[in-house]
Design a protein that fits this description.
It is a single chain. 45% of the residues lie in helices and 15% in strands. With 392 residues, it is of the alpha/beta class. It folds into two domains: 124 residues, Aspartate Aminotransferase, domain 1 (Alpha-Beta Complex); 232 residues, Type I PLP-dependent aspartate aminotransferase-like (Major domain) (Aspartate Aminotransferase, domain 2, 3-Layer(aba) Sandwich), CATH 3.40.640. The strands form four sheets. It has a seven-stranded mixed beta sheet with strand order 2-10-9-8-7-3-4, sandwiched between helices. Strand 5 and strand 6 form a beta hairpin. Helix 6 packs parallel to helix 7 and helix 10 packs across helix 11. The longest helix is centred in the C-terminal third of the chain and has 28 residues.
């Protein structure tokens, strides 16, 4: 018998359902199979392309980059600066905003959670449900307390705004509220401008700290429109955090390109937050990977490349919205899809119905009913509609 080990006390963890779905889809021999599970953009050919602007930036970087030396825990400082006007609508002074590069939006969220925990161990973070499945684990891993309220009703496809407002109105000063900036994952159902204004008012009145997760800017209604609600909230409070991802709107999924921004009421507090962020980043990953952020920097430093990226983003957004409108027009029961935004929606399906779709119709999606609409093309929309009708 082997000696007891430290690791014997570990509990077996369940396999990630979406990663398991990848293998099931790959092994399915049926030609008509549809992959609507993994959350990446796909074009009309089913590919997740490398953008032209990214290819051009990579070629330029290859020719001009003179070193692979460390950048430091803040990463590419110019990258974070160039993103500012896209995210916030303007460039804020260095004593108003601390911005650092992170490994993807997930890294930004974890860094934000660690910062909150350093400031107030066990602080309460409010999450609307359903939400991205990784939100709660990230917060809990940092030692924070997660409180939830119902944001969305899957059966009626309704944003439960009254329940959201009731929860936030009962939150205590210093509590954190995590908000989806746009293109809600998994529901696709965003707040209206009036609702954003109401959220901004209650967050300011209650002394709450907004943590905005802005991971899909430009894939809903446009870069400016997709950031408008978050900007209302951020402008209404003295202190706030924003986790950003370039993985989706630049198509840089595997490069893990993100940023964390901390807005503070005073220059002294900005510097205090910056110093803690850098210390926490150093402990978490020491220095973030450079390549993806360098590509975004090269693109945003060049007017022609920026224009080409914006044009490609418009094509991506238009295609997603065309699929949404085709689904809404093809089946009145799917009309809600035409009112939602981004790649994802949460269909009113049971786990059993999702299983039948996979088994009998070769349609692969998450067991929750979350569907990546970018996995469809205009040609496969009728097939998907017919498959849904068969399981109702």
């Amino acid at each position: 018998m082997s000696a007891p080990s430290l690791f014997d006390a570990l509990q077996q963890q369940p396999a990630d359902a979406l990663l398991s779905l990848i293998g099931l889809y790959r092994d399915d021999p049926r030609a008509q199979k549809l992959d609507l599970g993994v959350g990446v953009y796909r074009d009309e050919t089913g590919a997740t392309p490398v953008l032209r602007a990214v290819k051009a930036a990579e070629a330029r970087l290859l020719e001009t980059q003179g070193s692979k030396s460390y950048l430091g825990p803040e990463g590419d400082i110019r990258y974070a600066e160039l993103l500012q006007p896209i995210v916030f609508g303007r460039t804020l002074a260095a004593d108003q905003l601390a911005g650092v590069q992170t490994p993807g939006g997930t890294g930004a969220l974890r860094l934000a959670a660690d910062l909150i925990a350093a400031a107030r161990p066990g602080a309460k973070v409010w999450l609307g449900t359903p939400t991205w499945p990784n939100h709660a684990p990230i917060m809990k891993a940092a030692g924070l307390t997660v409180a939830t309220y119902r944001y969305y009703d899957q059966a009626t496809q309704t944003v439960l705004f009254d329940e959201m407002m009731a929860a936030l109105s009962g939150a205590a000063a210093g509590d954190v509220v995590l908000l989806h900036g746009c293109c809600h994952n998994p529901a696709g159902a965003d707040l209206t401008p009036d609702q954003w204004r109401a959220v901004a008012e209650v967050v300011a009145a209650r002394g709450l700290i907004p943590l905005v997760d802005l991971a899909y800017q430009g894939l809903g209604d446009g870069l400016e429109q997709d950031a408008a609600g978050a900007r209302l909230v951020l402008d209404s409070v003295p202190d706030a955090l924003l986790a950003y991802s370039c993985d989706k709107n630049f198509g840089l999924y595997r490069e893990r390109v993100g940023a964390l921004y901390a807005k503070a009421a005073t220059p002294a507090r900005t510097e205090l937050m910056r110093s803690n962020i850098l210390s926490l980043a150093r402990a978490n990953w020491s220095m973030p990977p450079d390549h993806g952020a360098a590509l975004v920097r090269v693109i945003l430093e060049d007017a022609a490349l920026t224009a080409d990226w914006r044009a490609e983003l418009t094509v991506m957004r238009t295609r997603i919205n065309q699929v949404r409108q085709a689904l809404a027009a093809g089946d009145s029961a799917l009309a809600f899809l035409g009112r939602q935004h981004g790649m994802f929606s949460l269909l009113p399906l049971s786990a059993e119905q999702v299983g039948v779709l996979r088994r009998d119709h070769a349609v692969y999606m998450a067991g929750s009913g979350r569907v990546n609409l970018a996995g469809l093309t205009l040609a496969t929309v009728p097939q998907f509609i017919d498959s849904l009708r068969a399981v109702r």
